[in-house]
Amino acid sequence: MRVPTTMMRSDLIVSPSPHVHSGSSIASIYHNILLALLPATLVGFSVYGVSAIQVVCASVASAMLAEALFQLMLRRPVTVADGSAAVSGL
Question: What is the pLDDT of residues 13-47, one digit of tens each?
């Protein structure tokens, strides 16, 4: 739907939303998330044993591999080391 030009206001300014930025990098944020998930993961390992370790290792590895492959296919820089894929797999 088009807005008639008579309804447009020229006193409005379009700009990006204000976001709080702490200076942390994306990689450090994801690594902090992984550290926060570590206690729950270790409890899961102690309750469910070796099978839980195998499932977590397989899911994290497959998420990291899939992200790397798709980034290579799309000719984008591979950002697996930032921890985002590991968080998704975990």
Answer: 888 777 777 888 889 999 999 999 999 999 999 99
Report which residue type is found at 32.
Answer: N
Domain boundaries, the chain: 49-90
Task: Please report the pLDDT score of residue 66 as a whole number.
Answer: 97
For residue 46, give both structure tokens: 């102690």
Q: Look-up: residue for tokens 């030009």?
A: 5
pTM of structure:
0.73
CA distance 25 to 52: 31
d(CA 52, CA 36): 18
Name, in order, each residue with C-beta under 8 angstroms of 83's C-beta and a sequence gap of 6 or more: 27, 30, 31, 33, 34
Three-class DSSP category at 10: coil
